[in-house]
Amino acid sequence: MKRRDFLKGAGLVTATAASGLGVSLWGMRQARAFGEVPKEAEGAMLPLELQAENILEIFLYGGVSQYESFYCVPSLGEASGTQWHAYLKSGHVQAAVDQCAFQGPLTEPFAADSMGQAVHLGPFVMPLRERPDVMERTRVSVSAHDLEPHEGAIPMMLGGRGLGHPAFSGLGAHVQRYFLERFNTPGRAPYSYALMSNGANGLPTDNVRSVVSIGMHPGAARPLAIKVDAAGDLTSLLARGTVGQNRAQYDALMQGYIDRYHERLRWRGEGGPLRAPRLGELEAASSSIANAQAISGVLEPQFFTKIGGSNCGDNAGTDAMTMNLKLAAHLLRHPTVPARYVCIVDTGLLTADGGGGYDTHGENSFTQARNLSHTLRQLLSVVNAPGENNPAKLDLDKTLIVLTTEFGRTPFKQGSQGRNHWPYGFPVVFIGGPVRPSGKGVFGACGEDGRATIASTPQENRMAALLSLGIWPFAQESFNVSDVPGATTEIDAALLVQKRQLGVVA
């Protein structure tokens, strides 16, 4: 290349950058707000009538056993006594079914997977099977990654990124930022929440709190985390008793300090202030404190009254999952300040032997049956049934429900009654929202060894949720085209994700 041609090209790049147009390897495009759909991609987005208004995600902490739940293929593992057959012939599955008083056949045909294999729903999801209206809005995505420890698998499934990635962020931060930048009403309650139980805080090394990570987003994008069965501190803090009647003066003083810092970040007192992430986080925290009354107005006291629960002959003095589901429905269906995303970390009615609700190393069948059926039964109790129009309950046309877990369980036994970790092929479940009866089914498949032969990436599952809300998922703060196997452009990637995960074909 001649020096003159090179300088011309460099001049074009400089001029383009100065004009506010970004330059990328895929061509020049105008800078957009986070989540904004490019003009050329508008035709690839879900139609408005298919988009969800909000998302309820339930993180099934510990690793759900897929063979007795959402991905049971009776033809697999029969000869080797693995997968569905590992604890069928031993009688452990039947014993769990009897103890939980499930009625009906052990499995129920659901749909063919991507290899044409007949996938059944197992006995431990009996509450779902008892709601044909919900089954018609259900899509199973066989997913896979290679992280066996909880500490790595949990962040991967909640954020779609490995630990240490600069863009590692929970889904709630993407959603919070998107709506906050478009509908930033002063004093409004948060758009995103993470609901946990007191028990979930006992295992901080498992990185459960990655659900509120913000990655490259500003501090204001962080979801509000609440331990519903230990919220006494939160309610007292929201009352701001330490500043008493001096709240207005305190807030004005804090804002004065922030304004002075902004002035120091302006060059010679002109133009906008330089970017200062830490100051941005302080400003977000200060704003949240000043607007504590808006949050306390949404978090009504009755949702924090402890209630007990029972299932399959077991009793719990505090049923955090039921409490969380009632609060989640309230937040998502609030008449004036509805949330757009709520994630519940499900640690089970009772803790599994390995920790959490589903980490069943020592005993698989009964623990999985008790905790999973309890969660599904309580979930469906806050979802409108056909002909029911309770405004306080979830409407599947408006809410996408996502059931996520960090991995499945091994197709073979661990000990005499348990199963170990298995990230090589396990289900993520999408219910409602864009998933209509025409999209019901299964994407992906597993083989005789239990490993996925066709699978979704953790990133694709995160993208599907964002696309369901009309949020464009491609940005430095979120995901890339390369995160979607087989895609060459952002439009290709969006269309593939919507087809695979949500069953929507453009």
From TrEMBL:
InterPro entries: DUF1501, TAT_signal, TAT_signal_bac_arc
Domain of life: Bacteria
Stretch forming the signal peptide: none
PROSITE patterns: TAT
Name this polypeptide is given: DUF1501 domain-containing protein
